[in-house]
Each structure stands twice: as C-alpha cells, then as structure tokens.
C-alpha cells in the first residue's frame, strides 16, 4: 500500500511500471492527494488545479478550485452525468429545486443537462469532478 508522501500531484502517463508482466495493462495506483493539492495550489487558485492526464482513459476528472467571491453562474450542465466530491471549503449549489449546501465529504450527483450555479463559501470551494470522457475533436472530411 502506498504512503501519502508517495502520492503524486499529477498523473503518471509513462507506461506500465517496471515488472508489470501484463503488457498494455496499467496497474492501479494513487494519482494525487487532495490534501496536498490545496496547499500546493494556494488559497487564490481558480479553475482546474489537477487533471487526470492518462492517455488511455474512459473518464475525465479534475479538481476545481473556486476562491471566495467568485462563482459559476447558472447554466445547463453537459449531456453527461457528473459526480462531485467536495474536498475542501464550502459553498452552495443553486438548482431549479433549491439550494444544496456543499461541505467537505459531500458526494453530489449532477444529472445531465441539469441547471446549476455554484457559490463558494468564505474559505472557497474545491471539489473533484468526474464524468465520462468526451470524445476529442478530430480532423476529417466534411459531411457530403
């Protein structure tokens, strides 16, 4: 089992670990410590302070930081269900059904296309956001 001090701040996309006999299969491992991310990014950090960068993945994941006094305005979410895990700070999630208090440890499901706004609390808000990976843009022929 890995110790917390061995946790990386970014993902490791260098390939299978030494001794991994299963060519092409990646071993489970710790990618980051949410406790360390907050201290490393600083109190005024905003936006994605960590991203899942594995090339062969089926999920997208980010740790998002919102400092106090900023917000994410009301909008319809993507065509994907999204799962959040609040890792630090606090805030309010405003939805069509009312307000939801966001506290550390909360796991929040945001159904696809649901309307939401996010208002961080006095210490800001940091949350892990996970959803199915969206296909990348490709270059191809225009449809006929």
Which stretches are low in confidence, meaning pLDDT under 50 for 5 or more residues running? Answer: 1-21
Rough shape? globular
Radius of gyration: 18 Å
What is the straight-line distance between the termini? 55 Å
According to DSSP, the number of beta strands is 7
Average pLDDT score: 80
Total of DSSP H or I helical runs spanning 4+ residues: 1
Quick summary of this structure?
By secondary structure, this protein is mainly beta. The chain is 6% helix and 41% strand.
Could you explain the architecture of this structure?
This protein is mainly β. The chain is built from 1 helix and 7 strands; from the N terminus they run αβββββββ. Strands 1, 2, 3, 4, 5, 6 and 7 form a 7-stranded antiparallel sheet that branches. A hairpin with a 7-residue loop joins β1 and β2. The longest helix is centred in the N-terminal third of the chain and has 8 residues, at 34-41. Residues 1-21 have low confidence and may be disordered.
């Amino acid at each position: 089992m890995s110790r917390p001090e061995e946790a990386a701040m970014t993902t490791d996309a260098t390939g299978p670990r030494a001794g991994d006999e299963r060519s092409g299969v990646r071993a489970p491992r710790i990618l980051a410590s949410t406790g360390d991310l907050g201290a490393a990014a600083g109190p005024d950090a905003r936006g994605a302070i960590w991203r899942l960068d594995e090339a062969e993945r089926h999920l997208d994941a980010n740790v998002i930081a919102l400092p106090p006094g900023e917000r994410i305005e009301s909008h319809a979410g993507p065509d994907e269900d999204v799962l959040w895990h609040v890792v630090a700070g606090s805030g309010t999630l405003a939805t069509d059904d009312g307000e939801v208090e966001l506290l550390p440890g909360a796991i929040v499901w945001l159904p696809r296309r649901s309307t939401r706004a996010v208002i961080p609390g006095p210490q800001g808000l940091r949350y892990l956001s996970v959803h199915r990976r969206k296909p990348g843009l490709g270059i191809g022929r225009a449809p006929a």
